[in-house]
Amino acid sequence: MSGLRVIAGRAGATTATGVAHGLGIEPAPCAVEEFPDGELRPRVGSMIGDDVYVVAPTGPPTSSAVVELLLLLDACRRSGAARVSAVVPYFAYARQDRRGSAGEALGARVIADVLEAAGAQRVLVVDPHTTALEAMFSVPVETVTAVPTLLDAVAGDLATQSVVVAPDLGAAKLAQRVGSRLSIGVAVVRKTRTSGRTVEATEVVGDVADRAVLLVDDMVSTGATLETATRVVLAHGARPDVSVLATHGLFVGDALARLDALPLRRVVVADTVPVTVDRSWISVRSIAPVLAEAISRLHGAVRT
Ligand code: R5P
Q: Ligand 1 centroid to 260 CA: how many Å?
């Protein structure tokens, strides 16, 4: 296998440039044309014998981003790449890792199948919503995490009288990991999702009274989870001093308006999707160094 190539479509361009520079190369040229009816047509250069990493987050507009990734994978394969890896900093549909009721689709499995069909021979993801994602693929899946990078940004805000809070049971393990790392206590909010935009919660397990709160989650989408969790911990006596660590900052719909109303010191996210919203309380950390390190390792393993 000859060269190492990093390539991206539209949403992954900034991250791919950071990744490529971290690897000491330039991103490979790629153009994505969008037709008036919404069809996409990517075009890449020759990749004969190369080890190619296609960087493509699948954030909103999600379905279009997924199709763009599929077409890019296919274009690289047809341009002669020896190996094509999908680098998906934010992996959409990972929340559909099981069917909630009869008649639903298994979204994560469908996306895994089409990525493989389009040519992905390996997948690299950042903090996927579910660890079950790996089992959805027959090709190898590498998972990396943004959490240490994000923690560096909030660690200075925290004191021993702070508490790490999981806004739902799904985030409890993450909260445990962060709590151990920071040597502070952990609490968990019991949340029920009532729709795509609404959640309910009244209970918190653990002591939050008179403590500053660090909420941790894999993603912020509509902000409903964060808003509800914040209101619950405040109702249980937490200080109006809340920081948030979440890998994927989607901030869709009226997320900002929801979060503006809360006593947030700061919300730290990674740039696993392009963050275009602008608020003094949002801090964005680059995921490029983490991805570059992982790609360097994977490429080295191919060469040896
Ligand atoms: C759900 O289980 C996830 O971990 C997040 O808590 C959730 O997807 C966040 O979405 P939203 O911001 O719309 O509540």
A: 17
